[in-house]
Amino acid sequence: MSFFRLKDLIRAVRVCKTATDERNVIRRESAAIRTSFKEVESQDARFVNVQKLLYIYLLGFPVQFGQLECLKLAASARFSDKRVGYLGVTLLLDEKQDILTLLTNSLKNDMNNPDDYIVGLALSTLSCVASAEVANDLADEVERLLDSPRSYLRKKAALAAVRIVRREPDLADAFVRRAGPLISDRHHGVQTAGVALLEELCMHSQEALEAGRALVPTLVRQLRTLATTEAAPEHSVRGINDPFMQIALMRVMRTVARGSQAAADELNDVLALVATLDDAASNVGTAMLY
What we know:
This protein is mainly α.
């Protein structure tokens, strides 16, 4: 017996009175989904079945048999299929599985798609599951997207670059010159991603560490501006101007100042300013002081 739709499966699970009843429902539905994968080639059926598999996964049941179907769905031309397929990839696969290499071609194609949101899906997936091999294959595509005119794509490309550098440190030097423009970007999301990239680069490359120390005046200016100006509504958290960005800046300052007295001296005044202006009575202020 199959419940056909995701909402029907959810309803059937909710009315179960015992854990045994729930396991029986999931076992029957899993068997029906497995049979459907073998006998039905409909993309619409695959879309519904992968959705149900992800729900079953969230309930804590094994669904490894659906990994290849997620890859097939991600290779679809439809955005709705790609969204569910890539979500399945990020949940059901990890970088240690050989099947992940089958994803490389889909990711590369989608990074060259004219639809920005499909490009964003590919970058988000790369940020979550990229192995060293995949990172090597797609580093050039990510580097190209760091120059995108869309802030949405620059932000996601920077986060994908963080993953690439983390998995393949030998590629760090290729991204060093990209960190400065990202940190100086007008969009707060791009700035935060750029700071995360700089911090990761500094952990793996002496060249990046020297470049980061050269960016200390920029980092100080950004932090001082955030600490002393009134927050825009979209950036205000309990009256504090983008505390996530401020914390990210202070984290990367700690990294670049380590072992450099000159960099540490430049940071002292702005850190004292942040500590003075923070409201220690609020959770946000306490998090920043910590």
